[in-house]
Structure of Transcriptional regulator:
Amino acid sequence: MGYVSDNLNLLSDIAKCIAMQFGENCEVVLHDLTLPYDQTIVAIWNGHVTGRKVGDGGTNAGLEILKGSAAPDDQYSYVNATPNGRILRSSSKYFRDEYGKVNGSLCINLDITDMIKCENTLRSFTGSGSSALTQTPELFVGNVDELLEIMMKEAVSMTGKSVGNLTKEEKVAVVHNLDGKGFFLIKKAAEKLADFLGLSRYSIYNYLNESH
C-alpha cells in the first residue's frame, strides 16, 4: 500500500476542490506510483486538458523520478505544453513513503493558452513587448506505448541520424540515454526498443551492461 491508496478519499476531495475552484481548464490528477506505470492515474478531473483518463499512465518526468535520475522535488507553477500546442501552467506535489521514496503525486495542469492570447493582444496595444515562456519537456500522452514511442524517437533524433543509419556505438548511446530517463521501468520496454532499433532483446540487455 502507498500514501495515495491509503488516503485516496481525502486526496480525491482535495483534487476535486482545486478542479472546481479553477474550472474546466484546470486538470487535476492523482498518480499512484506503486502501480504499473501504464496505469498510475487513479483519479482525474478535467482530463480533456491533456486527453487522459483513469487507468492511463504518467509522463516522462515521473519516470525520471522513479529511476532516480531526477530529483523528486515538488515543483510549482512551471510551464508545459501538450502535443497539440496548448500551453499549461503546472504544479506537482510528490508523496513519499517512510524511507523517502516517491510513491505518488498530485499534479495540476491549468490551460493558460487563451490567457496568453489575451495578454499578447494587450501587449500589442501597450507596446510592452512579448513574454517568453520556458517550456519543460514533459510528455502528456494517453497511454504508455505512445510515451515510449516518443521517447525512442527523441533519443534517436539526438544522434542526428535516422534509426536505420545508427552505428553500434550510437545504438548503445540511445539505450543508455533511455535508461537514464527511466525507460526500462515500463513493462516490455526492452522488447519495444529492440523492435525499434532492429535488434534482439538480448542485444538491448548487453548494451545496458556496456560502459558508456
The CA atoms of residues 28 and 108 lie 5 Å apart.
